[in-house]
Design a protein that fits this description.
The structure is a single chain. By secondary structure, the protein is of the alpha/beta class. It folds into three domains: about 280 residues, ABC transporter type 1, transmembrane domain (ABC transporter transmembrane region fold), CATH 1.20.1560; about 130 residues, no CATH class; about 250 residues, P-loop containing nucleotide triphosphate hydrolases (Rossmann fold). About 65% of the residues lie in helices and about 10% in strands. The protein has 29 helices and 15 strands. Strand 14 and strand 15 form a beta hairpin.
Length: about 725
Amino acid sequence: MNRIVKALLPYWKSIIIIIALLGLQAYCDLGLPQYTSNIIDVGIINGGVSHVLPDEITKEDYDFASFFMNDEERDIWQESYDFNADSNNYCLNVKDSKKLDELDDKMSFIAVIINSVKDKMENSDSTSSNAASQALQSPEAMQQMVTGIRSEFQKTYDTMGSKLVKSSAINFSKNSMKRAGLDMEKYQTSYLLIAGLKMIGMALIIAVTTILVGLFASRVGAGIGRDLRRQLYTNVMSFSNAEMDKFSTASLITRTTNDVQQIQMVSVLMLRMILYAPILGIGGVIRVYNTGAGMGWVIGLAIVVIMAFVGLLMAIAMPKFKAMQKLVDRVNLVSREILTGISVIRAFGRETHEEERFDEANKDLTKTTLFTNRTMTFMMPVMTVLMNGLSVLIIWVSANKIDQGVMQVGTMTAFLTYAIQIVMSFLMLSALSIMLPRAIVAADRIDEVLLTKSSIQESKETKNIEKKSGLVKFEHVDFMYPNAKANVLSDIDFEARPGQTTAIIGSTGCGKSTLVNLIPRLYDVTKGKITIDGVDIKDLKLEDLRNLIGIVPQKGVLFSGDIESNIKFGRDNASMEDVINAASIAQATEFIDKKSDGYKSSIAQGGSNVSGGQKQRLSIARAIAKKPLIYIFDDSFSALDLKTDAKVRSELKKNVGDSTVIIVAQRISTILHADQILVMDDGVIVGKGTHEELLKSCETYRQIASSQLSSEELEGGDKNGRE
């Protein structure tokens, strides 16, 4: 998880913008249910009237209402209205919604009384009306009647719910406004239109913010993927062969592609959904509290059940997610092996066996993937049941509250919507549980690569070679591969001088290639040291060291492009003349000139469209074009016929004779002319000298020579080779 957070940190500005947009989106999302509630409770049920005090009231109703008020209520009443002589009505002068809400609380009681008295007077017979009118003519009778009405109504008021009280009080406001001549149908329509337009505006804001959040999140996700791939590539490029042996090529490819993609997808989900979930959840809780419905326990119960269920799924699926990435590595490995060795597989008729091997790896991955997917498929049905159960529970509890008069229908609708939004915020978090475990595993695998530092490190105080000649010296060098129990090379001690050719020969697996790989520090020596012109190679900058060396590996490697770009690979600024000269020395012009595009002829990935001998000649030309001080040919002539081999060696002698040349070979004919031949056996130099000297002094060399040369050649040497 730390890796995902670290990957997000460079994009903190975009994340702040996303959070701000999500906050705006949540505000609108949470505002819509309240407007829905108001449309039902105020717009439909109350005819668009939202407060107890009427906007306009006739002088008669104004005076009549005053009779039933105590001193405090009468002061509020008089302060809240101004007389309009034109309409002969009193108009409400309070416009602030908060102030009106406060007045609702203070005036609801008396408004219900006045409305009740008015209804009784309008619905009673004329005798009762006359009695009431006569009572109003006497202050004592009026006071007695008001006291009786307030006392009697107080008992009823105490049994009414707050919502029912306000709804009854608003009836006073509606009836008063109607008697004052206001068009209540138009008033209601106006309220509904304004509320509807506000909802449409909020919906548009939600749409815009959703699009912008998606845009910013996608850009951040793409940037994270780019950065991780660059970091992985840069770190892998610094690895020595020891680290490359630790991580398989197939695994590194999976980590750079599939694992990075997992983190990229989760990052986008986190920015679009996971950041939004707590904002929506917290806002929903606040809104639910403000509704005063008193049903918070319902939501709490739903959240506890959801979290317990998600935790159970995570516990079951997490181990399988860890195994899944390793199985992806395995499929990748088998696929690469089959595709790389397809010609060998066909030649040996092993297609069926390889298909079975791939099928086995594929089935293992499929089984694990199906298990995790089937586990996660339980989530949506269970969540749907929980959501529907929550809705039923809320409606059942709300119905009782509505029946008791403590809740209105619109409030129930708003609470139900808020409850669903809160639960949805937790569902968003749980949805991430499907991808987060796999992303965490992927992040750990990426971290493993990024935290692995190359065992080949430059010295803090590097040195420069003052006089470069190319003298390579091994001083009692031992080498052991990481985690091995025995040395591969022991007490290697020799010099490779400039202007001379040093050849290394020996049986397969005796350590020849390992020895030459120590010179460019593809591995570091375990004991002893290697110097170039008297400077320990560990004290040189890696770039400076490798610029001194032109190496032709045992297996010729070419890159996609053309012939020219491959020869220039070691020196980009090489001229065309240098390219042609290098190709000529390597005897590559023979086939290059036959191609219609010449040096612009395309080279497929890995050089698959050229033969083994052509690939080796281009690899040799690449090293020559670099013009290094030290040439290392690691069995680089094995794919060449004897005639071409002899020509290449002859041209090398003429053109790079001043450089240090180190040749690893299997054929005696390739090294007969060498100034110094090292004979290796089981990681130890058992012979050192010229061909003639070794024939006399080294039994191992004599056995190799006997197996390859005739008796005449053993006696007289390889004249063709020397020519």
